[in-house]
Write a structure and sequence with these properties.
Helix content: over 70%
Number of helices: 8
Strand content: under 5%
Length: 184
C-alpha cells in the first residue's frame, strides 16, 4: 500500500514538473517572439527618450554643480544612483540634500548627503530629517531657506549665462550676415 502511494506521488510530481517545464518553455518562446517583434522600434524609442531625459537633467544640474564645486555629470550620476535606492526621490530633494550637507557639514559633521538621503528614503521630509540629525526646528527651516536661495542663485546664474551666450550668437550671425553683403 505504501509503495503504491509513493509511486502515485512520484508520478504526480513528475507530471507536475513536466507541465511546469512545458509552460515555462511556452512562456519563454512567447516572450522571445514578442521581444523580437518589438525590438526594432521599442529600444530606439526608449533609448532616445532616456537620452533626452539625461540631457535635460544634465542641463538642470549645471547651476548647482558650480555652487558645489563639482560637475553636472557627477551630480547626475549620483542622482541616478540615489534614485535606484529611493525611486520616489525628486531632483529637488536630491539637490537640497547636497546643498544642505555642503552648508551644514562643517558645523554639524553628522549632516551628510547620505544621511539626508537616508532620512528621505525612510519617509521623512527634509525638515524631519534635519531635526533627526540634531538641528532644531527653527535651524532646520533656516537651513532649508538658505539652501533654496543657493539653488535659486545657481539656476539664475545659468540662465544669465545662457542668455548672454544666445545674445553673442545672435550678434555673431548678424555680423556675418552684414559682412556677406546682405542687408535687412
Amino acid at each position: 500500500m505504501k509503495g503504491t502511494r509513493m509511486i502515485w506521488y512520484a508520478g504526480t510530481m513528475l507530471m507536475t514538473l513536466a507541465l511546469l517545464a512545458a509552460s515555462a518553455t511556452a512562456a519563454a518562446q512567447q516572450l522571445d517572439r514578442s521581444t523580437r517583434a518589438s525590438s526594432a522600434t521599442a529600444p530606439v524609442a526608449d533609448s532616445s527618450r532616456t537620452e533626452r531625459s539625461r540631457a535635460v537633467n544634465l542641463k538642470k544640474f549645471r547651476g548647482i554643480a558650480a555652487k558645489l564645486n563639482t560637475t553636472p555629470e557627477i551630480l547626475q550620476s549620483a542622482f541616478e544612483r540615489a534614485r535606484v535606492a529611493n525611486p520616489k526621490l525628486s531632483r529637488g530633494n536630491f539637490i537640497a540634500a547636497n546643498v544642505l550637507a555642503d552648508n551644514l557639514g562643517a558645523r554639524h559633521p553628522n549632516i551628510t548627503t547620505a544621511a539626508i538621503l537616508s532620512g528621505l528614503q525612510s519617509g521623512r521630509n527634509l525638515g524631519q530629517t534635519l531635526q533627526g540629525l540634531g538641528l532644531s526646528a527653527g535651524d532646520a527651516k533656516q537651513a532649508r531657506r538658505a539652501a533654496d536661495r543657493r539653488v535659486k542663485d545657481g539656476d539664475q546664474r545659468v540662465k544669465d549665462e545662457d542668455k548672454r551666450a544666445r545674445d553673442r550668437e545672435k550678434e555673431r550671425r548678424q555680423r556675418e550676415h552684414e559682412a556677406s553683403g546682405h542687408t535687412r
